[in-house]
């Protein structure tokens, strides 16, 4: 539904924190009318329940959610259910399977990508960083189909694209294709995967990835599942490259970075300081069980930690919920964020650090002139939304009412 100008009444907004003996015990809220025009918030007015307009019925207004790690081009969502096979144990096993299946997947990938976008929008996500395969089997078809789907959904979703050489730069002959894709305006980041274990060289692969990014004014988002020495050396190599090339600062990320999960506190603090100094961020799907990422330590030192669903339904995993509030809830449970203040801060992982209140309880969102990308949630405050994974009742993307 497209509307250039409209009003939403009975909208619940956070207005501050309530204290008792210097402890935050509650989030203050009040009802407002929100006027939206041409994709922006035009006005924020005292509530008038008798006015005309869309009735939010007391739902809490929050910034729309951002999924910062997805693979929309090759999810098996929309195909018949199939659990993960125990026979495929390594990345190279997965590559062999993909080489077999990609031609079949591409036949329906436009339609299924649109269905996946609909699915995550149902949980309030309107912005996605998605990797797309760059490999000899896909050639440019994965990107072309992905772009068709995004064009069809452009009114309701925004995406930034990562060229992802899933099959290695040299393990398969992918480098020539990556060089071509890196020049395209629609591509924002150059990706990579496990340089040492897949291609046999950290330096050879990382030099190519960073040079493609520098030459074409792109960012970097590298998949790194490797543990131990090779994992840490790869992270350090990207840090060094970013410090040598300041244009990569703030635009370079390591996705997964599982090697960090094995560090002790002192080691995690040292690498966090290096990451911040170099402007390198970490992107995580928040693993748990055998490995727990040091997200609190990274954030303590100011590392930008982005969160995404990664797999929702594919041949790698079928456990992704597609729900960024659920990811925030998982972080709160894993790291013991239980107070009103802590839970309200944890919402930042779902919104890329856009929050209604700052750390001191000052109202900072929404403001007049802000982009009208928002959700209406059945919750009394951010803390409850995170703790209860509250249902999203409405999504608005740049003023367009998605549902």
From TrEMBL:
<feature type="domain" description="Amidohydrolase 3">
    <location>
        <begin position="54"/>
        <end position="136"/>
    </location>
</feature>
<dbReference type="Pfam" id="PF07969">
    <property type="entry name" value="Amidohydro_3"/>
</dbReference>
<dbReference type="GO" id="GO:0016814">
    <property type="term" value="F:hydrolase activity, acting on carbon-nitrogen (but not peptide) bonds, in cyclic amidines"/>
</dbReference>
<dbReference type="InterPro" id="IPR052349">
    <property type="entry name" value="Metallo-hydrolase_Enzymes"/>
</dbReference>
<dbReference type="InterPro" id="IPR032466">
    <property type="entry name" value="Metal_Hydrolase"/>
</dbReference>
<protein>
    <submittedName>
        <fullName>Deaminase</fullName>
    </submittedName>
</protein>
<feature type="domain" description="Amidohydrolase 3">
    <location>
        <begin position="217"/>
        <end position="403"/>
    </location>
</feature>
<dbReference type="InterPro" id="IPR013108">
    <property type="entry name" value="Amidohydro_3"/>
</dbReference>
<dbReference type="InterPro" id="IPR011059">
    <property type="entry name" value="Metal-dep_hydrolase_composite"/>
</dbReference>
